[in-house]
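Second attempt. The first submission of DUF86 domain-containing protein had a stray character pasted in from the spreadsheet, which I only caught after the job came back as garbage. Lesson logged: always re-copy from the clean sequence file. Corrected sequence (92 aa) follows.
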Amino acid sequence: MLVEALIALCYHIARNAYGVRPETPVRTFSVLVEKGLMNAWEFEELVKLVRLRNLLIHRYWVVDDRRVYDSVRKDFKAVREFLERVKRELGF
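This time the job returned cleanly.
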């Protein structure tokens, strides 16, 4: 899943590039904002993706299928911009 890969990438960056060991995905994203690798808009969008992932995994019986469908159809511009910056600035 896209969100799992993003979380793993962000943990890897926080640990290896910045020497920080955050305990949650949201805190990991916060570290990247503090270090200037992620902007506030990307942070908000990635947090929304993590929340959707958590809903799908932990409370799937209350999932609004339309919400999931709309999320999948949306342009993942924040994800693409963040990944391009990681590639450009860190060479990943």
